[in-house]
Structure formats: structure tokens, C-alpha cells
Amino acid sequence: MTEEQFPQALSIAGSDSGGGAGMQADLKTIQSRHVFAATVLVAITAQNTLGVQQSLALPTAMIDAQFASLAADLQIRACKTGMLADVATVKAVVNNLKRYDFGPLTVDPVMIAKGGAPLLTEDAIAVVRDELLPLATLVTPNLPEAEKLSGLTITDQAAMRTAAKRLQALGAQNVIVKGGHLTHADSANDYVLLADGSDFWLPARRVDTVRTHGTGDTLSACITAELAKGRSLPSAIRTGKAYVEKAITDGILVGHGHGPLNHWAYPEDRDED
Ligand SMILES: Nc1ncnc2c1ncn2[C@@H]1O[C@H](COP(=O)(O)OP(=O)(O)O)[C@@H](O)[C@H]1O
Ligand SMILES: Cc1ncc(COP(=O)(O)O)c(N)n1
């Protein structure tokens, strides 16, 4: 007999000791959406709002063990990846995602922290592109990440659309190209291309702030939480965008650099259709 379980989501990511990005942002976001959050930790960073001071990838056997533990007990309904450190880590995560069904996969192809520190080695980018993207229900690159994965230069909204098509051709079913890095614009519009070929823009006003540490993690974690509840992908995406916009707009002051977001800002009983 199987009992109906509470919605459970999984973050496969690196730890940010500063608490603003990475696994910590994922946990805070998923929790605030009333979904139970489980974790596969793949790397540890010594990090704060000023930058990344040190970084350590965990042994792949430990990654395998965490996946096996979850598969043996929990009922993960949706999962996401964040920082994946290096080639060995990406390959271990890919192998485990092929082995276990943890529901729709959102790939946030994290490469470089806001302060400029690399969170993925250069040689691992091709492995993400060739082996992880084909497993993705959704991929959510920022502009530099979309450029690296697509090989295109992206300086305007037309190029964002072209890049999304290219990423779909590489195997990701659905794509969000995030406009947060289009800093010459006074908007922060994201472009969404869905599996059926339909598309739409997520419009947002650009908030003039340096407190944007963990924006990408927060967006993808919120989408993952909504998918774990069984929401449709377009609805999950709209809720994710509204959640991150509110978390940036109603900022909190923590640290002295690229500060974290306010994960309490978006009303917990609201979602977008
Ligand atoms: N200054 C800003 N004002 C409003 N929205 C922003 C701002 N910066 C980023 N965003 C939004 O936050 C989300 C994450 O985007 P981005 O910062 O591009 O990703 P990443 O954190 O992966 O670099 C996107 O929805 C983006 O539009
Ligand atoms: C462990 C970890 N994972 C992800 C990010 C990306 O977040 P951001 O691009 O907002 O700095 C980060 N800084 N640290």
C-alpha cells in the first residue's frame, strides 16, 4: 500500500557558507513554498557576499551515496541542479539522474559567482552541454551561461530568443534565458521557450541594487518547488519570476557586498497562473 506523501523536492548543489546562494538559497526558497526540501551536496564553498574564498568538490562516492539514500526512502517529485564544480562531479550527477527518477529536472547551469569566482571548471562546460542538458526538463541560463552553452554572443532580446532555440536543439525540453545580466536595459525580462515551440516573455522592472546574490538559484528553486506540488510548468515559471522579483525588490541588508535576497517577501499562500 502506498500512502500519499507530502511534496518533496531535491536540490543538487554546492553550499554557500554566506547563506545567500547555492544550496542555502534553494532550501530557503523551497521551504517558503511549503515543499519539503532534500539535498545532495556536491561541493562546499567558503563564501560571503564579497566573494568565494575557497571551494572544495566532494568525492563522487559521497555524491552516489547521497542519491542512493534518497532513492531508498523519499519520494522526490522534482529536482534541480546548481553549482556542479568539475567534470567528475557533473558526470556523477548525470549518472545518478539516469539511475533514479526524481521527477522533472531543472538545470541551473551555474558557472561563475556574482563576484567573478568560477564555480564550474572550463572543461566541464562541454559535459554540462552534452550530457546534462539532454536530461533537462528546463534549463535556466543567465546570459554568460547561455553564451557559453550556445556559442552565440547575446547582447539583445533577439539574441536571447536565438540562444533559447539553440539550447532546445541541444536537448533541453524547455528554456528560460534570464535577462538579469542585460544591465544596459532598465528591465530584467526573461525569455521562455517551451517544448511545444510556444514562447513568452517574463517582464520585470530592473531593481537598482547590488543585492542580487542567489537570484538564479532562487528562481530555479521556486520553479522546482512548484513542480513538486504538481503545478504546470508555465505556472511554476510565472510563480518563480514573481517570487524572485519580490525577493529582490523587498531587499534585506546582510553583508557588505552582493547581498542576499529576502526569501520572506513573496506571500506564502500566493502563486501565479
Ligand atoms: N536587478 C534586477 N532587478 C530585477 N530582476 C533581476 C535583477 N537581476 C536579476 N534579476 C532577475 O533574477 C533572475 C535571475 O537572473 P540572473 O541574475 O540573470 O541570473 P543568475 O543569478 O543566474 O546570474 C531573473 O529572473 C532576472 O531577470
Ligand atoms: C555555492 C554557490 N552556488 C551558486 C552560486 C551562484 O549564485 P550567484 O550567481 O547569485 O552568485 C554561488 N554563488 N554559490
UniProtKB/TrEMBL annotation:
Hey, which pathway is this one from? Answer: Cofactor biosynthesis; thiamine diphosphate biosynthesis; 4-amino-2-methyl-5-diphosphomethylpyrimidine from 5-amino-1-(5-phospho-D-ribosyl)imidazole: step 2/3; Cofactor biosynthesis; thiamine diphosphate biosynthesis; 4-amino-2-methyl-5-diphosphomethylpyrimidine from 5-amino-1-(5-phospho-D-ribosyl)imidazole: step 3/3
As one GO molecular function, the record gives: hydroxymethylpyrimidine kinase activity
Gene3D superfamilies in the cross-refs: 3.40.1190.20
Q: What is its EC number?
A: 2.7.1.49, 2.7.4.7
- In this chain the Pyridoxamine kinase/Phosphomethylpyrimidine kinase domain maps to 16-262
Top-level taxon of origin: Bacteria
**A Pfam family that the UniProt record links to this protein:** Phos_pyr_kin
Alphabetic keyword roster: Kinase, Thiamine biosynthesis, Transferase
Mind telling me which residue stretches traverse the membrane in this protein?
A: none
Q: Which chemical reaction does it catalyze?
A: 4-amino-2-methyl-5-(phosphooxymethyl)pyrimidine + ATP = 4-amino-2-methyl-5-(diphosphooxymethyl)pyrimidine + ADP; 4-amino-5-hydroxymethyl-2-methylpyrimidine + ATP = 4-amino-2-methyl-5-(phosphooxymethyl)pyrimidine + ADP + H(+)
Output the InterPro entries linked to this UniProt entry: HMP/HMP-P_kinase_dom (IPR004399), PM/HMP-P_kinase-1 (IPR013749), Ribokinase-like (IPR029056)
Question: To which protein family does this belong?
Answer: Belongs to the ThiD family.
Query: Know the name of this protein?
Result: Hydroxymethylpyrimidine/phosphomethylpyrimidine kinase
* Gene that specifies this protein: thiD
